[in-house]
Amino acid sequence: MMGEVKAIAFDKTGTLTTGKLQVVDIIPRKGKSENEVLQLAAALESCSEHPIGKAITQTAITKNIQWQVATNVIAKTGEGITGIVDSQIITVGKENLIKSEVNNFNSDFLEESNRLQKQGKTVIFVAQSQEIIGLISVADTVRLEASKMINQLKHMKIKSIAMLTGDNQQTAHSVAQNLGINQVYYELLPEDKLTVIKRLQQQNRNVAMVGDGINDAPALSLATVGIAMGNAGSDVALESADIVLMTDRLEKLVEAINLGRRANRIIKQNITFAIGFIFLLLVANFTGNINMPFGVLGHEGSTVLVTLSGLRLLK
Asked: N or C end of the chain: smaller count of CB under 10 Å?
């Protein structure tokens, strides 16, 4: 099936990027400090396994910031996390979640958010008692081999190359533009990725999905071929995938496609040869030009030749 793939969908974080997020900016509200914003965010994100949560928690640890243990923590898939710290409701998440949780959305923070997103950063808002107290931006690094790999796929006449991400439009397009990807799907929840894969299958039939996280597992299972990153991939993603790229080397994807195409060529050659040879044996048999020993030798000999032909894939 790998040799028949016509479209490939890539998860962004951890697949096209290294997944090693770092906190770049902390912008507090007037009257609040960066440490206060980071402290409250870490109180909730320390309960999360999301890469963004890990980046925020690690930054707080690096700055020797202590935080209270949050209670009633609820993770909202693809949106953020809420909980209670010191009897106050704290919300850490994307713009849409914050808008639904706070009383009024500060336009100054919206302008800052747009500015940072245009730089390709992911912005997380922090709200305390239904009021925004600051925002945190995190940035990821695009894998060095990703751009080259995308160009190789285009030269291999892969019809459709898409990027799937939960990030907002500006951040998604910034990364996609750097990589040369024109088809971008953004602000996706795990179930939205399934919808995109189904749409790509309707358009191209055979679709490969490349991902690494728990959120990618359903899409990996649905795709014609699911491909997981070996090192960065979660256990669920690895179990859901058909192919694993060891050591997270994206260039191995090109190898896998070439190997799949070569395998298909050799299979077709072997089937054509086997059927053709059997046809010749039948003709020879009915015209009386072959006896039993030569018939057996010819049949078994063709089997050996087909086997040896298949072994060419070991090169």
From this structure: C
